[in-house]
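Question (not urgent): is this output format expected?
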Amino acid sequence: MSAQQPLSVVLGAGLMGRLLAHSLARLGHRVEVHEAQGPDAQGAAARVAAAMLAPLAESAITEAPVVRMGQHALTRWQEILQSLSTPVFFQQNGTLILWHRQDAGEAQRFEQLLQRTQREHVTLPSLQALQGQALQAIEPAVEARFQHGLYLPGEGQLDNRQLLQALLTELTAHASVQMHWNSARKPQDFDMNGANAPQWVFDCRGLGARSEQPALRGVRGEVIRLHAPDVSLQRPTRLIHPRYPIYIAPKQDHVFVIGATEIETEDLSPASVRSTLELLSAAYTVHPGFGEARILEVATQARPTLPDNLPLLTVHNPRHISLNGLYRHGFLIAPALLDATLEWVQHGTLTLAQQFQLSVQHGG
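Got this back:
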């Protein structure tokens, strides 16, 4: 490798750090990745996720920039996955919204929120209200247990853990990439003016960057991974719930990720009995086959979140950039943050960030 290749330092090897390091290496950079923990991504919020790509469904609880970035992700993820040598599960079969009769009022409010989003984002595929046989034709697995639903065409998902491993495989094999595990580093650890100074420092540490971004907070999430051979849901399914919408995301080989909880705490202790019972009970009402499922894992993690629950790209100086605040939308918005960062690196412009309405802060 040429010594003239620009050196880029990436801090953090979660989703954003791995994506960025992979892209920089493909652009011809020498890359050093420093991660405070090991290669298994145990400290990354991305490991405890469903990795749903659902801009319209998420619009009920988030704002326009996330929807814009999510629309970008649906096509961009396919390009990213094609650049990997290891296959990663990806599907784009849409999202199904279901509710029980007693929650019809909440479902109506939810539908109105989605309709408002569609009026503001006319390029989103139109949601479809389904009843009876039309619902069962879209998702035969629900049989006659539900009489009403909403179908959101075009939305998708991928397998988060397969992706993290596939990116790790690429980075480990790339001759211009050095991975430093159990290496907790900060931007100020690198002399940007010395003889061996990196050309770029990218801070992707999530909550690990709180000393530089004190407004960060952790929002706890809990997910359950099940193996349910008797269940054949074909797409992510969301159940309107009095306390919070519950999602069921089918992965390969009858593995399902069930989640929903958002708790304002950084406590990473095991999931509560209440949360576990609610998630499992809700899944069982969607399909009785979950009653015989095997629990593979109950996992918790804290997502890095800023006060407005939106992501932030900070250009501390032209060569030092931080990406943070992905909250619960990591996989939905990561491609947009990636491409906005790469545009700055390659051209010194932020046109994409403006298109996505991505918040950019200079200095700080």
